Amino acid sequence: MISVKTDNSDLKKYYHNLQNSEDLDPLLERIGDSKYVLLGEASHGTHEYYTWRAQISKRLIEEKGFSFIAVEGDWPDCYKINKWIKNYPDSGEKIQDVLKEFNRWPTWMWANWEIAAFANWLKNYNSKLTDSKKIGFYGLDVYSLWDSMEILVDYLEKEDPETAKIAKNAFRCFEPYKERDSYASVFKSAKEGCKAEVIQLLKEVRYNAHSYDTEEEADLNAEINALVMANAEKYYEAMAGFGDDSWNVRDRHMVETLNTLMDYHDADAKVIVWEHNTHVGDARATGMAASGLLNVGQLVREQHKDEGVVLVGFGSYSGSVMAGSSWGAPMQKMKVPKGIEGSLERQLHKTDPTDKLIIFDEHPELKEAFAERIGHRAIGVVYDPGWERGNYVPSRMSDRYDAFLFIDKTEALHPLKIKPKGELTPETYPFGI
């Protein structure tokens, strides 16, 4: 494994201490007037990644006027959080009840106490704002095909009967595949793809969206659900080997959804994105590019660099994580081994075993030191600590990210099924259990 000379003690003077929200000042300065801030995570099950992203997001909202948060989650489920924090009618009493409706595996990604605390903060913050200024919370992912179909058909039957007929035709087009797992589905029948039906539906919804006004953001909700249907067809087809790689289809969908959200908001809108490092960190600085893969970070940089894009990665040396031993397996708290020899995580720990913030373009020495390829750990929702060496992505860190938060020892996320220690409040929860 290729490693950079990050154990050089001379670099320590450029690292920023990371203990509390005030220590984020250098990152806020680096972000400046940027309109796109993408916050990563090295796993989907680590407490500190969620809470530090919440702290960064709170400061961006309060101090720099960011408009909404877009996450690696399904649109229908995340839209329920959006309705709750904006206090829309029939949005539910408690955030715990809303989050318990996240029933697609892995449930712990969003049905956790860390998100509950942040959602409480967002709702309180929104209570002081006019409706047009309330902070939103939206899902970018493509996996909610069946939920999106049902929501769209139900809504259109009430508000737009003619377009509802198109939606029903599209629904029937997908029916043969409904019993298949939405992550592992493949097309095995000889039936033509559903592309014509869903594209027609998307065009009709976009054309008529201005008239969907019986509910708050009804036009946006209808358009995104139709977009999910359109891109899900491409995604499933790609998984069967009949089109572009499914990874690229998925990340392009997330960026298309992000662009739709930005267009929906006013011209001054700014967005915070929460996704895994593998989506946030620029694919061109990893081995992904050689395999023909792209990702959200790369696409957003390419499309919006003139508006300001800041990519922030996260990582840790050791600790614990919430994950499953196989796809669909029960979640469990797993040990995260110490970073392996020659990895970024091991080097940062050896140099200075404390939590730190690194801004790569702050000093030429940092930019140069982190420009060489080094293994950088990525933990998925399926994790086997015994196969640790296979979890490292060769990365040119100062090209992959603009900044990096390193937490030396982390702990597992806290699913709703596990009662937290202490009182759950947005003021106290992010920095302690």
Structural write-up:
The protein has 433 residues and is of the alpha/beta class. The chain has a domain at 143-244. Helices cover 39% and strands 15% of the residues. It has 15 helices and eleven strands. It has helices at residues 25-31, 47-64, 75-85, 95-99, 113-126, 145-159, 161-174, 195-208, 218-239, 246-264, 277-280, 296-304, 344-351, 364-369, 397-400; strands at 16-17, 36-39, 68-74, 136-141, 271-274, 309-323, 332-336, 356-359, 373-377, 392-396, 403-410. Strands 1, 2, 3, 4, 5, 6, 7, 8 and 11 form a nine-stranded mixed beta sheet that branches. A two-stranded antiparallel ribbon has the order 9-10. Helix 7 runs antiparallel to helix 8 (195-208) and helix 8 runs antiparallel to helix 9. It is globular and about 70 Å long. The chain starts with 15 loop residues before the first strand and ends in a 23-residue tail after the last strand. Mean pLDDT is 85; it is low at 180-191 and 424-433.
